[in-house]
# Entry
Amino acid sequence: MAEKRILNRIKSVLADKGRTNLWLAEQLDKNKSTVSKWCTNDQQPTLDTLFDIAEVLEVNVSELLVIQAKS
# Structure
């Protein structure tokens, strides 16, 4: 079974900001289950949505991404 890749830090940034998945879903007018999938990295938001998330959370979009160097 393939290892699950962690591509975003949405859950971590929400925790840092003291916000919840439900709050983010309400701010973006998205379904709470969709936001939950982003936070667990089961699904990824579109690039446009990622910028919307960054704006709502008042962070640079780069803070929402996991950058991994190739080994």
About this structure: The mean pLDDT is 93. The helical segments are 10-17, 21-28, 32-39, 47-57.
